[in-house]
Design a protein that fits this description.
The protein has about 120 residues and is an alpha/beta fold. Helices cover about 40% and strands about 20% of the residues. It is built from 5 helices and 5 strands. The chain has a 5-stranded parallel beta sheet with strand order 2-1-3-4-5, with helices on both faces. Helix 2 packs parallel to helix 3. InterPro entries: Bact_response_regulator, CheY-like_superfamily, Sig_transdc_resp-reg_receiver. It comes from Rhodoferax saidenbachensis.
């Protein structure tokens, strides 16, 4: 059975690029347009990995990850932050929230798939 990955980004074009990359590697994909929208997708279904942007309207990625980690079903779900932010302070905030990896945009599909393969649980 395919593993399910939640992509959270306010850029539809970026979600599409990530989605195509992941689907091409055999993953199922769910999309959220911001942190608030993505939280509604965390409804108890099995999600194996979350890929989230940092800077988004309504609810930013770090707040979203913090909120997602409070939900028992997603407490241990690995998170990759995919962002234009490369600053140490943001990275530390992301790690504190529970992010396991930090991928800076623009990303290489192979780099993204490598990070996903390392973090996704069998």
């Amino acid at each position: 059975m395919a593993k399910t990955i939640l992509i959270v980004d306010d850029s539809a074009s970026l979600r599409q690029v990530v989605s195509i990359t992941l689907k091409g590697a055999g993953y199922d994909v769910i999309e959220g347009c911001d942190g608030r929208d993505a939280l509604t997708k965390l409804n108890g279904q099995k999600i194996h990995l979350i890929i989230s942007d940092v800077n988004m309207p309504n609810m930013d990625g770090i707040t979203f990850v913090t909120e997602a980690k409070k939900l028992p079903a997603y407490k241990f779900t690995p998170v990759i932050m995919l962002t234009t932010e490369a600053g140490e302070a943001k990275k530390q905030a992301g790690q504190a929230a529970g992010a396991k990896a930090w991928v800076v945009k623009p990303f290489q599909p192979a780099q993204m798939l490598g990070a996903v393969a390392k973090l996704i649980l069998p």
